[in-house]
Each structure stands twice: as C-alpha cells, then as structure tokens.
Input
Amino acid sequence: MSIVRSELTEWKALEAHRAEMDRVHLRALFAADPQRAEHFSLEAAGWLLDYSKNRITKTTLGRLFALARACDLEPARDAMFGGEHINATEDRAVLHTALRNRSDAPVYTDGEDVMPEVRAVLEQVFDFAERVRSGSWKGHTGKPVRAVVNLGIGGSDLGPCMACEALKAFSRRDISVRFVSNVDGTHFAEQVRDLDPEQTLFVVASKSFTTQETMTNAHSAREWLLASLPEQAVARHFVAVSTNAELVSRFGIDAERNMFRFWDWVGGRYSLCSAIGLPLVVAIGREGFEQLLDGFHAMDRHFAEASLERNLPVVMALLGVWYHSFLGAESFAVLPYDQYLHRLPAYLQQADMESNGKGADREGRPVPYTTGPVLWGEPGTNGQHAFYQLIHQGTRLIPCDFIGFCRSHNALGDHHAKLMANIFAQTEALAFGKTAEELRAESTPEPLVPFKCFEGNRPTNTLLADELNPYSLGALVAAYEHKIFCQGIVWNILSFDQWGVQLGKVLAGKILAELKAAASPDLAHDSSTNALIRRFRERRQG
Ligand code: F6P
Output
C-alpha cells in the first residue's frame, strides 16, 4: 500500500505554508517584486500563461513542485506517453497523444506501434471529408451534402461541437454542421426541422455504439430519412465513428467502407483528434485539422519535455491543487473572452469532472482530501453581468482562468479593444480590489463603504494567444488535458475511467420499462421515485 498523499511530508509542508499565506495579499506580493509578472509567466506553443495574480510565492511553488515529484509525476507522464495500461480499472493504455503525434516516432502499446493505423484512419477521414466538401459524395438522389448532423453525446459530441464553434471563422459556411446529443426529442426535431433529407448526412458517433441517447437519435434519424427516401438511402446518408464494427453493421451502415475506427485506448473525452473529429474536418478541411493536430502536438511535446518548473500544464495543475486541496476552493471558472469559445466550458466540464470527479484513490481507499473541482464558466463579457458579483465580493474562493486573444476575426470598430480592456480590468480588480481608504479618499459616503469595498486577493490566470485558430485551439485543449492528468496523479486517483456514470444508466433502463408498461407496474423504488413515476404515468396524456 502506498502512502496516502495527505500523509506525505511534502503535503504537510504545504498545509503549514497555507497558514503563512493566509495573511498575504496579492497587493503586497506585487509591491514587493516589481518583476512579479515576469517571474510568474511562461510561454508554450503560442500561449502566454501569466500566473502572477495567484496567491503564491516562490516558496509555494517550490513546495508544490516538491509534492509533484514526491507523487512521481514525471514517471507517470512517461508511462502515459509510453502506452502503459495506466487506465487500471479498464486495463487500457491512454494514448490520445498518439492521435496527434506529428513526428515520425513510433508509439507502442502492448508491443505494437499504433501509428500506422492512426495515420490510415486519419487519411480515410480526410478523404471522406474532402468528398463531402467537394460535392463528389452524393446523397441517394444524386445531390451533394448540405448538412452534416453528428449524433453523439459526451466525448462523441462535446469536442467536435466545441471545436466547430471555436473555428467557425475557418469553416465552410455552405455546409451546415450540426450536433444532436440529448435524448430529448426536441433536440433532434429542432436540429433537422429545416433540413432536406436528400442533402443531409448523419454521422453516428459512438465509441461503444450502445449509448442510449445516441442510438435513440440514430433510429429517429433513420425514420426521418426513410419518411421520404427508400431503405437503400441509408448507405448514402449514414456513416459511423465507432470502435464497434459489429453493432455498426447491424444498424445498416457498411462498416467496411463507411465506418471510421478508433481504439479502446482513446477515452471518449479525449477523442477530438480521432475520427470523432470528422464533422470538424468537414467544416475546416484537412489543412485546418492538421493545424489543430500540430497545436496539440506542440503542447504535448512541451508537456513531455519541459522541466516541471517551466511546464505550462504542470503549473496550471499545481495551482489548482493549491486552491482545491489547501485553500478550500470548491469550484473553478473558465472564462473565455471570445464568443467562438462559448462551448469551451461545457467541453472542459466533461474533460475535468468526468476525469477527476473521483473519491477512491488508486488503491481503492477513500481519499481524505477533496479532488476535482466543479468547473463552470461563460464567455466574457456576458459573465460579468451575471455571476462576477459573487467572484468579486462573495464569500467563496473561486480561482478563474481568463482566456483571450490579441487579434479578433471580427474587427468591428473598437469591439476588440473593449473586450480586451474588460479581461485585463477584471483580473486587476480581482487581484487588487478596492480598500476602504481608497473609497474614503474618493468621498464615498461612510455608510456605503462596506458595500463598495473589494477585498481583492482573488486568484486568476490569464492565458493569452495572438489569435484563435486551429493551432492555438489544439494547444489550449492539450494544456487542459495535461493539467487534468497531473492533478489526477497528485490526488492519486484514476483519471481515465468513469464508473460514476453507470448507476444512473442502469436505473433509467429499469424505470423506462415501468414507464412503458401497459398495466400499472409493481413499483419497488423509494416512496419519492414511486410517486413521481405514478404521477407521470397518470398525467402524460394531457
Ligand atoms: O458519459 C459516459 C460516457 O461513457 C462518456 O465517457 C462518453 O464520452 C459518452 O458516454 C459517450 O459514449 P459513446 O461514445 O460510447 O457513445
């Protein structure tokens, strides 16, 4: 049995340090070191991370790096890149980094180089997407595709959906790429209501090809198509992205020609660079997707090669550990100041919360410390007019990542300068606040002083790149992926399984049968669940 992380000397050293840091304000830290921004910034793959507005000193960082080393972070990182079965409960390797390996180096797992297959599937995806883009892929009646509808959920939806939104400026506008994920029929109905079946292509994206939501939507899509086209049309209007060729064939899709494979060593939430990215390739083309892979790869190499002290994802991870495990922060906000990134928080919610929302350590013991935070966020400046009040003056500590770009794709008047003025102003206000003395110096009426005071000392990172493009998006997503990995290592949890989603799925299956039963079923749930089921059965007809 390994030592519980919170029993490590390095962990205890950070606990002791927390007491010292309790009295330290960012105002004092900046005043003491005029070069603080320089000392606490680093750059990787086109991104600047300014982490100077955090409640840290060199001592804090030194102790965090010592903790990371005591947790064997570097060997753990090498084990992931090396194809070891680090997803222990599923006995699988974790090799999403192979999907964007742009070097000639082989990537082995179980004695086999996965790169030839990775490249072959990528070529198959590029070739197919090009046929859709050029119009040479025809629907059943000979018309080109004008809408691609991805049917998937979780990792088979959030990644390509987020990236298609993020990279709209690089996308073909004459082919509409849409996403249906929810089992709520409204989602499907609203996404297809203006589409012409003859010009619509469905991508059934499911690693397992058993997920209830996706399969329900796939069957509804089939019915929708066959309402106006004959059975043979399915072959021209459906393709699949999956690891399960048998179930794909059973659905009626030619698994030989119209299925794009991936592998069990690609976790759903880490699958954007696999064939799951197909709708994105249709949107931005081969060149754009290759630039995205380049960005991912650049951050992968940085993560694999840079020292812990100069490693952007490692620094982001350790700052999170500091706030969540030592300073009591429960949540973490991701605040992109770019409208194109409006789905990034939702994407990162799955990446982070499905990975690190775990309560048992690697040896199955309950962890005596908190693990993954609640991740949330909205694009700036909308959030400023909604929840920032709580971040500025509420009673909770909420570390935030502010994400921005020096250039805009829509340079209308002074919009971009205003947007960026807001991002910089927010991190300044959060760090430095406004004191009672400053308010009095401005002749603020005394009764209002307590309400207008900003305590400050609220921690933020600023992530700044020149432009939102496929490369910078890839590097950003990779940075968050590796951040999540590092935190999982420090918290000693298994970041690549997701057993916590199973129970609800099983219970829903049982309840579905009870909802559909013709005669009143014998209900053996708790009194609340029984009553809700009965009420729904009684009232659903209106
Ligand atoms: O939510 C559970 C989950 O298994 C995710 O991890 C996954 O991304 C999603 O369901 C979809 O799974 P699939 O691609 O197999 O349909």
Q: What stands out?
A: Residues 153-156, 206-208, 211, 214, 268-269, 354, 498, 501 surround 6-O-phosphono-beta-D-fructofuranose (CB under 6 Å). The radius of gyration is 25 Å. The chain has a mean pLDDT of 97. The chain has 23 helices and 13 strands.
